[in-house]
Fold this sequence. Notes:
By secondary structure, the chain is of the alpha/beta class. 36% of the residues lie in helices and 18% in strands.
Amino acid sequence: MTQPLGYKRVLLKVSGEALMGRRDYGLENETVNAIAADIGDVIGLGVQVCLVIGGGNIFRGVSAAATGMDRAQADYMGMLATVMNALALQSALEKLGIPTRVQSAIPMASVCEPYIRRRAIRHMEKGRVVIFAAGTGNPFFTTDTAAALRAAEMGCDALFKGTQVDGVYSADPRKVPGAERYEQLSYLDVLARDLAVMDASAISLSRENRLPIIVFNINAHGAFGQVMRGEGRFTRIVEPS
């Protein structure tokens, strides 16, 4: 029999690409609504949830910098893309009756709250979902690093990384059919094997704060709730006991 993971407060990292669904660019409403429903399922278990959203479905700073754009400027543009995604997910959650607040690391008072740690914690204590947008507010840092940072600041029990596959593999299983899948890894395993699940700074920050990372397929219907119940397929990244 599977056992619930037992977490009471978690952060879900959703990439911008996960919001595209079957599209090549932008947002697919059906996919956004499905992710919102999965979040609602987890809230129904009594878990406090916050999120960090990526922006790669709209604009990716690293790619733009590679074509000659100033890296810092490109990263700021990517941060603005995450705010657009956060507002879209907020709308989907609130249609389900789930109170949601968006907090941005780049202040833009007309559309969302500024990031204030104590306010965010209070929102979650009141049963609201908090979506953290604009990454860390600094260029040269990914939204993976922002997810690890916010999870540590919020005192989360775990960081859930929603990806396109059902865990961590030795290589991309969509391109390498024989790639090895891992059930559990240590932080140092991920760094030493250069596994492309999160960037090194996010892994190191999680290790420093002993923050478990749970990697699962965000596109599988109901997967977030299933993993929270200890079901389904996922990879756990933890400090070895």
